[in-house]
Amino acid sequence: MKTTHALIFFQYCLLSGLYYASAGDTLAPTQSIRNGSTLVSSGKTFELGFFSPGESNNYYLGIWYKSFPDTVVWVGNREKPVTDSHAFLNISSTGNLFIFDGQNTTIWSTNSSRAARNPTAQLLDSGNFVVKDADADEVTESYLWESFDFPSDTQLPGMKLGRNFKTGRNRYLTAWKGVNDPSPGDFTFRVDDIGLPQFVLRQGTEKRFRTGVWNGIRFSGLPLRVSPLIKNIFVAHTEEVYHMYEVMDKSVLSRVMVNESGLLQRLVSYENTSEWTNMYTMQNDKCDDYARCGPNGICKINQTPICECLEGFVPRSEREWPVLNWTGGCVRRTPLDCLKREGFLKIENVKLPDLLDFKFDERLNLKDCRAECLKNCSCTAYANPNHNGSGCLMWFGSLIDIREFIEEQSEQDIYIRLPASEISDEGAGDSIWKSRRTVIITATSIISGLLALVLACCYMVCKYRRKKKEISRLPPPKEPGFYVERSCSESNVSGLRTEPLTENAVTLTMEEGR
Ligand SMILES: *[C@@H]1O[C@H](CO)[C@@H](O)[C@H](O)[C@H]1NC(C)=O
Ligand SMILES: *[C@@H]1O[C@H](CO)[C@@H](O)[C@H](O)[C@H]1NC(C)=O
Ligand SMILES: *[C@@H]1O[C@H](CO)[C@@H](O)[C@H](O)[C@H]1NC(C)=O
Ligand SMILES: *[C@@H]1O[C@H](CO)[C@@H](O)[C@H](O)[C@H]1NC(C)=O
Ligand SMILES: *[C@@H]1O[C@H](CO)[C@@H](O)[C@H](O)[C@H]1NC(C)=O
Ligand SMILES: *[C@@H]1O[C@H](CO)[C@@H](O)[C@H](O)[C@H]1NC(C)=O
Ligand SMILES: *[C@@H]1O[C@H](CO)[C@@H](O)[C@H](O)[C@H]1NC(C)=O
Ligand SMILES: *[C@@H]1O[C@H](CO)[C@@H](O)[C@H](O)[C@H]1NC(C)=O
Ligand SMILES: *[C@@H]1O[C@H](CO)[C@@H](O)[C@H](O)[C@H]1NC(C)=O
């Protein structure tokens, strides 16, 4: 990137006798920013100016980190480069920004929401480039225009990604076309707000990855990443739905970006280091590829091959499945027959399938959800998507993009509708399942009872022996039975969801899942 230093620019100003915006953070109507001159935000975090990526002779208006001039976080005229080196930016008396080329031709301009009397453009220390009326108050609502409304490939702290229903604006990320080409590439990352909101990465129109729905504290399809550094904020109501994050330590820089190959990364840089480190890539493994195992398949990363059919389903094509082509997915071994008895099989710790044909009822709990699903012959599965145990999500038709999680914390279960015959075949049917569970639990209770008794006996014997040997003050063995108790309550007989573990509640503001 070719950015001339402020000093050279300053000399240029002196020599040319022209007044250009100097290293301040604001641009007024009499000023302009051109080749070599920049704005620097008040805290010296960000810089704005023209840059030319790689070997190209295209000039773009961009915002980059002052300490990382190669890390461009926003590009204004990404679709309309200036092809000569005389690009300049200024602001009109009504508050619109203009980029001109050497021929004074308008290359790019903004469209402010309203006219200003005394407009200025300012590069804020958040990296937001805003146009405001100097006469108006300094609140976000007073901006006539802001670069945060037009994201490039990077989400900065404090920047909302999502839709505003009032203005109709949808803010989303679009990857660069190439490392040296900031024009919009194929990959977009945006909120899908049909019903329950989730974020989806697309290549063109094809879905490639999704975060899963917001469960109240995090995106349920992402592995749990607890970081005290990042505070995620998600807002969904009638006016807008968006995701935003904050960095809790002011000395740390962090950004989220979608790179040219469609990978979503969170990067961090600490004050005294001069490099970015990849905190994580959102796409964790092959099971995160959208619909990896086809309809009604489930992806299990610790298994070879990684794809299998959901229980009660078989590969659609006996030819494709063995050659590891899973796109065709799976079909039911026994068709559903609504008149006969049917039940549900619980699958634990999964990423819920995509919301293609679904229904969401906020008011129903899990038990009512089951009854509701059972009522409708085309309901194929149900789940409780909220972390607090409320809400009923029902699917109709094929189940697409299910994966198993390795971490235990996810706690997301789904109940798949199956004919009674399938459930008893698998030894895990509804009523049969219930009785089996009861038997298992009873057996476990007896065993644990016996175990406790044995241990108690041992303890008594030990104590007795100890006393006898006159070795006292040794800690008694720990009380047995906790594991058994917990697993009993977890393998909940009625299928009612257990309350989320307290760990989850504690990490509420610390979840890093985006
Ligand atoms: C703009 O910058 C390029 C390289 O930095 C230089 O070759 C060119 O002369 C500059 N143009 C002006 C108008 O300053
Ligand atoms: C933009 O800046 C140039 C000087 O760099 C000036 O001649 C021109 O009038 C300005 N245009 C507007 C609309 O302010
Ligand atoms: C562009 O406009 C400026 C002032 O508005 C003028 O001095 C300059 O000659 C113009 N350049 C061209 C190539 O027309
Ligand atoms: C600017 O916005 C107004 C309404 O918001 C619209 O009518 C107009 O066409 C827009 N102009 C440009 C250049 O986009
Ligand atoms: C449960 O969480 C959802 C989503 O966060 C929320 O809309 C709902 O009001 C909560 N319900 C209860 C009973 O807390
Ligand atoms: C995108 O990010 C991934 C993960 O960090 C990296 O391996 C890949 O090289 C990046 N692609 C480009 C084009 O930079
Ligand atoms: C960065 O600074 C902290 C103290 O502020 C120090 O502990 C750490 O070692 C430094 N790291 C590097 C890479 O210099
Ligand atoms: C995989 O199977 C699908 C049909 O289910 C077919 O269209 C596709 O060409 C196959 N892919 C490969 C690589 O053979
Ligand atoms: C079952 O649900 C589907 C999808 O919501 C709906 O179109 C259909 O009318 C429902 N059938 C009955 C009998 O309620």
Automatic annotation (TrEMBL):
Q: Which residues form the Bulb-type lectin domain?
A: 24-144
Apple domain span: 338-419
Report the SUPFAM superfamilies cross-referenced here. Answer: alpha-D-mannose-specific plant lectins
Which PANTHER family would you find in this protein's record? BULB-TYPE LECTIN DOMAIN-CONTAINING PROTEIN (PTHR32444), OS09G0551150 PROTEIN (PTHR32444:SF118)
UniProt xrefs under Gene3D superfamilies:
Bulb-type lectin domain
Keyword list (alphabetical) reads: Disulfide bond, Glycoprotein, Membrane, Signal, Transmembrane, Transmembrane helix
* Upper lineage: Eukaryota, Viridiplantae, Streptophyta, Embryophyta, Tracheophyta
Q: How does it sit in the membrane?
A: Single-pass membrane protein
* Membrane-spanning ranges: 439-462
Q: Does the keyword Cell inner membrane apply?
A: no
Residues of the signal peptide: 1-23
Specify one Pfam family: S_locus_glycop
Protein name in UniProt: Uncharacterized protein
Which locations, inside or outside the cell, does it occupy? Answer: Membrane
